[in-house]
Specification:
The protein is an alpha/beta fold and about 500 residues long. The chain has helices at about 15-25, 40-50, 65-75, 90-100, 110-120, 135-140, 155-165, 170-175, 180-195, 200-210, 215-220, 220-240, 270-275, 280-285, 295-310, 355-370, 395-400, 400-405, 415, 420-435, and strands spanning about 5-10, 30-35, 55, 80-85, 105, 125-130, 255-260, 265-270, 315-320, 325-335, 340-345, 375-380, 385-390, 440-445, 450-465, 470-480. A six-stranded parallel sheet has the order 2-1-3-4-5-6, sandwiched between helices. A five-stranded antiparallel sheet has the order 8-7-11-10-9, with helices on both faces. A five-stranded antiparallel sheet has the order 13-12-16-15-14. The longest helix is centred in the middle third of the chain and has 18 residues, at about 220-240. It starts with a strand and ends in a 10-residue tail after the last strand.
Amino acid sequence: MTRHLRVLLVDDHPLLRRGVAELLDASGRFAVVGSTSTGAEGLALAAVLVPDLVLLDLHLPGIGGLQVLADFKCQSPASRVVVLTASAAHQDLLAALQAGADGYLLKDIDPNALLAALGDCVSGRLVLDPALTEVLACGLRERGPPAAAPAELTERERQTLALIAEGLNNKLIARRLGISDGTVKIHVKHLLSKLNLHSRLELAAWAYRSGHISGWEEGMSLLQGCRFALNGLLWRWRQMPASDPRDDLDCLPLALVRLDEAGRMSRLSNGWERLSGHRCGDCLSRRHVDFIHIEDQPHWNQALEALRTGQSERVFVLRYLTHAGELRWVEVRLCRQHQGFLASLAGVSAQIPGHRRLEASHRSLNNLLDGLPMMVYRCRNNRDWTMEYVSAGCLALTGYSVERLVDNRSLTYNSLIHVADREHVWQEIQRALRTRQRFTIEYRLVGADAHPKAVQERGCGIYSDAGEVLGLEGVVMEQARTVRQSGR
C-alpha cells in the first residue's frame, strides 16, 4: 500500500483548517497528522511528527509566519513548507521565498489545483499560485536589472540555472547533473553573485525573462534525466582499473558497487567500508543481498530480476546491517551493465522520519504477534478511529487483513464496533484523554463473519509537547467472557 504523505496544518482559522484537512484526507494521497493555530505549537508538533509537508499561514498570533517558516526550515530541513495565505502582496511573496518556502499559494485556489500543487511540491518542485505571476514580476522588476551578461556564465552554471528555472531543489539538481549537493550550492552562490540577485526565484525569473534557457534541458530526454545521476558518478569509476590511484571517487560520501550477473560483489569503493563497517577485501565475491536486512532482501532480489528483464534503473531504500550489527537505512540506485550491475549506496538514516523507522520495527514485531487473537494498533483520534498501524493479529481478531484496515475510509475500525457500543467507546476514550490516563474498555466487535465478539481494549493517548492529542496506541484482545452490553 502506498504510504500517505503526512501533512501538518498551521493556520489560525479553525474552519479553514478543517476544510483543508477534509480535502487532503479525502484525496487518498495525503493524511493530516497535526493541526494547530499558532506557530509555536506548529514547531513543537513538527519536531514530534516529522511531517512530509507543512501548510503554513503567514499571519499567525504570537510568532509571525516568516519567523516560523525560517525555524521550520532550520528544525526540519527534510520537510517541505508551502505558504497558504490570503496575501498577494509581492513583499510577502518574495520574503517567504527568500526565507525558504517551497511554495506560495493563495487561499482562494481551486481545490484540485491545490492538490496538484502540493503533489508537485513534495516531488521537489517550487510551486506558485498562477495568480501571482504578475505580482512576482512586479516585485522582481523593483529589484532592478541584473548586472551580468549571459556570456559571463560557465557551462555548468548555465545548466544549474536551467534546472533552477524548472523549479528543482539542490538535491534534484545534483542528481540530474551527477554532482554533489555542495557543488550545486557553489554554483548557485556564483550565479547570485554574478547576476546581482538575491534568491533562487529571482534566478528563475531572470532565466526566463532573458531567454537564457537554451537547448540543454530540451535535448535531454526524460530517460536520460533519470539515469544521469547514477551514470555521472559511475562513469569514470568503471573506466578505471581497481588499483588506479586517481580513483578520487572513493572520497565521495557513498559506496559504489559492481556486481556480477549472480549479484556477487566484484568491486567496491572505499565508501562501502564507511557505510557497512566491513572491509572491502573481505566482501569481494560475496552475495550483496547477505548484507541486507532479511525483510528487505526480497526487494533487492526483485530489483535484480526487473533489470535482467529489461528495466534500465531502479531506485529504492533498503535497510542494511553493519558489521557492528547496527541497522542503517540506505538509498540504492541500481542499473544494468554488461554482464552485471552497478549500484550506488547512500546512507539516509538521518533523513528517514521517525514514524517510518517505527513502522519498520512494527513489521518485525508482527513475527511475534502472528496467530494471536490480539491486535496492536496505532490510530488517529477521530470518530472513525483511522488506523495508521495494526499488527498481523488483526486477521484472527476481526477477519480482515492489515491492508484492509490501515487508512481505509470505507472499512473503518469504528464500523466494526457494535452499533450500540460506539458512543460508549468514544466517550470513555475521550474522558481518559482529557485526563491523560490510560484506558481499559470492554465492548463488542463485529468482524467479517458478522458475529459479535467480546473484546477488551487497553491503550493510551499520544501527545505533543504542546499537549495536543496526536493519536492513540494500544492493544485489542478477545475476551473469554461475555461483555455487558451497553444500553441494557
